[in-house]
């Protein structure tokens, strides 16, 4: 029970960190305090700096997949949050994260049950509800960018399930990912404010760098289905935080679409009869 309790505590802190990333990004990017390129670069550089003392082995090609996935996630995440609200962004992000993890399981031979197929339809309907004209969306492009970020984060999560030094591996990923997002600075048109730099730094050093170390420590202890389920708490925490700290409304449309997405993904995790639990 001690090991299970520690895993639960680590997972809880990781989920809070994930939700914090959405809140910090939206707070920084929504009012123009900083642009997407600078936010991405500072976020990754801050994470690399705080983790540098525990980097362990020298970065190698083995770290390249994790670093590339991290860079794509951060870039798409920052660009999407120029327009998306924190809550809807987190919903789209983690819907695509779970879809990626479920697809990986399917490739490995894990079959969807009948409830699983129904869940897939339900979750798709929830996304349609959020993306349909007249909702909280401001266009298809931000949603597509967040979807790309979600797929990249799903890949990063799968890569992180390999055993080894989670802290050192995360540090090397941040170090290698930082130069990959630097070309984004070319498209920034202004100088970031101190407020924007501070939020990007907090996101990189605390809710990203340290948060991802926690997640990398948790994921090898959990099955794919459990990993997918645990992350479903993130959009809920992000929505509540956005309402409390960013004055984002908790609309009926957001609630219905979010419930459909989360409920649908839960159904996809129901194993067919005869499969091991």
From TrEMBL:
Keywords attached to this entry: Membrane, Transmembrane, Transmembrane helix
Tree of life domain: Bacteria
Pfam families, alphabetized: EamA
Domain EamA: 144-269
Transmembrane segments: 37-57, 114-133, 139-159, 171-187, 193-215, 222-246, 252-270
Membrane topology note: Multi-pass membrane protein
Cellular compartments annotated: Membrane
SUPFAM superfamilies registered for this protein in UniProt: Multidrug resistance efflux transporter EmrE (SSF103481)
PANTHER family recorded: AMINO-ACID METABOLITE EFFLUX PUMP-RELATED, INNER MEMBRANE TRANSPORTER
Name the record gives this protein: DMT family transporter
Organism: Erythrobacter rubeus
């Amino acid at each position: 029970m001690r090991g299970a309790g520690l895993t639960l505590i680590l997972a809880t802190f990781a989920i809070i960190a994930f939700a914090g990333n959405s809140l910090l990004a939206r707070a920084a990017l929504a009012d123009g305090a900083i642009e997407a390129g600078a936010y991405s670069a500072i976020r990754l550089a801050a994470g690399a700096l705080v983790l540098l003392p525990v980097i362990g082995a020298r970065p190698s090609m083995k770290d390249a997949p994790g670093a590339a996935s991290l860079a794509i996630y951060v870039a798409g995440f920052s660009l999407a949050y120029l327009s998306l609200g924190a809550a809807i962004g987190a919903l789209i992000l983690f819907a695509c994260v779970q879809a990626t993890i479920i697809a990986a399981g399917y490739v490995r031979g894990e079959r969807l049950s009948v409830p699983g197929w129904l869940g897939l339809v339900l979750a798709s309907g929830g996304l349609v509800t959020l993306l349909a004209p007249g909702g909280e969306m401001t266009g298809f492009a931000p949603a597509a960018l967040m979807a790309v970020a979600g797929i990249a984060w799903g890949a990063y999560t799968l890569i992180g399930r390999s055993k080894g030094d989670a802290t050192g591996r995360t540090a090397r990923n941040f170090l290698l990912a930082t130069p990959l997002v630097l070309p984004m600075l070319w498209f920034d048109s202004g100088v970031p404010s101190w407020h924007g730099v501070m939020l990007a730094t907090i996101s990189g050093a605390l809710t990203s760098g340290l948060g991802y170390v926690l997640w990398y420590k948790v994921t090898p202890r959990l099955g794919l289905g459990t990993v997918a389920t645990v992350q479903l708490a993130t959009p809920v925490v992000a929505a509540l935080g956005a309402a409390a700290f960013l004055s984002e409304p908790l609309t009926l449309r957001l609630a219905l679409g979010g419930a459909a997405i989360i409920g649908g993904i839960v159904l996809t995790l129901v194993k067919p009869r005869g499969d091991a639990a």
